[in-house]
Amino acid sequence: MRKEILLAIFVGMSLGLMITFGIYQGRQNSTTKQNTDSNRAIINPVSSDSATLQKNTAELVVNSPEPNLLSKEEEIIVSGMSNPNNFIIIFVNDQEYITNADEAGNFSSKVTLEEGGNLLNVTSLDEDGRKVEKQLSVIYEK
Fold first, then answer.
1. How far is 136 from 84, CA to CA, in rounded Å?
2. Which structural domain range is residue 101 located in?
C-alpha cells in the first residue's frame, strides 16, 4: 500500500511539473513572439501598414510642359506621374481633359492652348476621393 501511495504522489508531482512547465513555456513564447514582432517592425519598417501608408499617400508630378513655357504650338502634351490608376483631370482655361494614369502611374494627354497666357490646373484624383493639384502657366504665341 505504501508503494501505491508513493507512486501516486510521484505521478501527481510529475504531472503537475509538466503542466507548470507547459504553462511557463507558453507564456515565454507569447512574450518572445510579441517582442520579436516589435523588433521586426523596428528593424524592417516595410510592412503591410507602411505599404498601405504608401498607397494612401497621394502624389502628382508634372513632367511636361515646363512651368512658364513659351510655346509656338497650339497643342501640347501634358504628361507626368501619379499614383497608379488615378483619374487625371486637366483644366486649361475653360476646357477640361480627363485621362487615367496607367499601372505604373504614368499619364499623358494632348491639350489645346488659347493664344496668350494659359493656366493649366492638373488634378490627380484617386478612388477614395483624395486629390493632389498642380498649377502651371503656359504662354502660346502664334
1. 22
2. 58-140
